[in-house]
Design a protein that fits this description.
Gyrase A, domain 2; alpha+beta; 6 strands; single chain
C-alpha cells in the first residue's frame, strides 16, 4: 500500500510578509542613496555656478572700469593710441596674483626649510632658502620634495610651470652646518606684472 504525503507550509504568510518587508527596506535604502547622491551633485553644481557667477561678476566689473576709464579719456580730450589700449589689455590679462602665491608658498614650506628672501625679475621668481644639514636625511631629497610640492600646487604652478633647482652651498651659522640654496620659478611667457 502506497502512502501519500502532503507537505503543508504553515508559515507561508509569514515568509511573504518577510519578503515584502525586505523589498521595502531595499527600496528605501536605494531611494535614500539616490537622494543623497542627487543632493551632493546639486550641491557641486550650485557651487560651480556661484563660483562662475563670481568670476563673471569680477570680469564685468573690470570691463566696466575699463569702459569708464576710456570714457574719461574721451571726455578729457586725450585720445588713446593703439599702444595705450594694448598696454591696458596687457595689464588686465598678464599679471600674477601674489597674495595667493605667497600663502601657497608658506603652506608648502616645511619646518625643515626656511625661505630667507625672494626676488622677481624678468619673469623669474628666485627663492633663496636655508636648511639645516642632518646626517639622517639627504638635504637634496628635502629640496627635491619641496620643489615637487611647489609643482603640485595649482596656485604656484599655474603661473610658474617651470620650477628648477639652481645652486646650493654649505655654510656655517652659529656653529651649525647649513645648506643655502636657490630655486627658480619661471613664469609663463607674458606674465610679469603684479596684482
Amino acid at each position: 500500500m502506497n502512502q501519500i504525503f502532503f507537505k503543508i507550509n504553515l508559515n507561508k504568510y509569514g515568509e511573504l510578509k518577510q519578503k515584502a518587508e525586505s523589498e521595502k527596506k531595499t527600496f528605501r535604502y536605494t531611494a535614500i542613496s539616490y537622494a543623497l547622491v542627487l543632493i551632493i551633485m546639486i550641491g557641486i553644481v550650485v557651487t560651480f555656478y556661484f563660483d562662475l557667477q563670481k568670476k563673471v561678476g569680477n570680469r564685468s566689473k573690470l570691463l566696466n572700469e575699463i569702459r569708464d576709464e576710456i570714457e574719461s579719456y574721451q571726455i578729457s580730450g586725450d585720445f588713446l593710441s593703439r599702444r595705450d589700449l594694448q598696454r591696458l589689455a596687457q595689464i588686465s590679462t598678464e599679471r600674477i596674483f601674489w597674495a595667493k602665491k605667497l600663502v601657497a608658498l608658506a603652506d608648502k614650506t616645511t619646518d625643515k626649510i626656511a625661505i630667507t628672501h625672494f626676488n622677481f625679475k624678468n619673469h623669474r621668481l628666485s627663492l633663496y632658502g636655508i636648511t639645516k644639514l642632518d646626517r639622517k636625511q639627504k638635504e637634496f631629497d628635502l629640496i627635491d620634495n619641496f620643489i615637487t610640492e611647489l609643482k603640485n600646487n595649482l596656485h604656484i604652478s599655474s603661473d610658474f610651470p617651470e620650477i628648477t633647482f639652481v645652486n646650493s652651498r654649505r655654510d656655517f651659522e652659529k656653529d651649525v652646518e647649513i645648506l643655502r640654496f636657490q630655486i627658480d620659478c619661471i613664469a609663463n611667457a607674458g606674465q610679469g606684472g603684479s596684482r
